[in-house]
Amino acid sequence: MYSNGLDDFRWKFKRSESAEFIDRSLIDKSLIFLEEWIRFFPKESTWVAANHHVPSIVIRLDCTIRDKTIFIYEIEERPAGIGISYCINPQFRLMIEGLRRRWPVIRSLISSNRKESDDRLWLPTIGFEEALQDDCLLLVRTEPSEEDFHIFQDRSVSTLRNKGDKVYGEHMGLWKNVSYRDYELFPWSEGFCLKPKQGSKCKGVHVWKAELNNKGVGISTKTQIRRVIDDFGEMYLQEYLAPMSLEIDGKKLYMNYRIYFGYDLEINSYSCLGGIWVARPNIRIHGASDATIGPLQIKED
User: What is the pLDDT of residue 199?
Assistant: First the structure.
């Protein structure tokens, strides 16, 4: 049985009751963007792709808002944070429960190599051997290299092999392919973000912004960037997108929005669920012990 509380959750962060709001006009623009994303995300032989022609039953758009315009960092097709959003955002909880009533039974299958998953906060969980004996649909939390789990591909409501693949952004103009040969040509004066072609959880991600260098906010050094591009050979380079900011207890934090969309099987389209805002004293914004997380709600007209 899933848990509906955060008290025993291993990930530690500061919880805020203060809600941020996103306009429906920006949600509508995001939905148009997602239609294009679906076209370019690599196809995989999962249940959700075979039956509904989308990469995942729940996705997350990580973004910043500036001058009433949405700027997209990336789209997570098998996102974490659903359970956290379920617990701290009543609007999100209500909306995803509405969708679940129209979904088949889904359980979360989590690799033992993972330290923690917040799926148990909103979904029943199941073990590997139990999953072999069952026929329910699965949200499989593994790395692509864990090939033992690929036998569940035809029951999966999200990605296995293609988890974290970022080729869609190259086709959509979000970032461009660069190699170690391009190092001197990187936009050092404007700033940029360098990320692996496939991956998640901020692993291998490096941000450069000259004005923030030596400020202790997570900006990589040129030496680190040289090393990582040499190691990977090729990576994706995205223009620097300034996060939003807020002040808590007199301390400046950098903030982004994480907007979730669930696939409605009745209308064959994604619906916005709201989500969470995440803020850190670090430009690399992700779940961490120094993060503050609060509800992100859809603004009522």
Answer: 83
Q: Is the dihedral of CA 157, 31, 164, 256 positive or negative?
A: negative
Other C-beta atoms closer than 10 Å to the C-beta of 145 total 9
SS (HEC) of 276-294: EEEEECCCCCCCCCCCEEE
Q: Which two tokens stand for residue 138?
A: 């699965």
Domain boundaries, the chain: 14-162+245-298, 168-239
Third-level CATH fold of 168-239: Dna Ligase; domain 1 (3.30.1490)
Task: Return d(Cα 222, Cα 14) in angstroms, integer.
Answer: 32
Q: What is the pLDDT of residues 176-217, one digit of tens each?
A: 999 999 999 999 999 999 999 998 777 889 999 999 988 889
Residues 285 and 245: beta-carbon distance below 8 Å = no
Residues 6+ apart with CB under 8 A from 37: 75, 168, 172
Cα Rg of the chain, angstroms: 19
- Residue ranges of the chain with per-residue pLDDT less than 70: 1-5, 7-11, 301
In contact, 45 and 156? CB cutoff 8 Å: no
pLDDT in tens, 217-244: 999 999 999 999 999 999 999 999 999 9
* Torsions phi, psi for 230 (to 5 deg): -65, -40
Q: Which residues pair with 72 in a beta bridge?
A: 63
Strand spans (E) along 173-228 = 176-179, 192-195, 206-208
| Model confidence pTM above 0.90 | yes
- Label residue 109 exposed, middle or buried (CB < 10 Å: 0-12, 13-18, 19+): buried
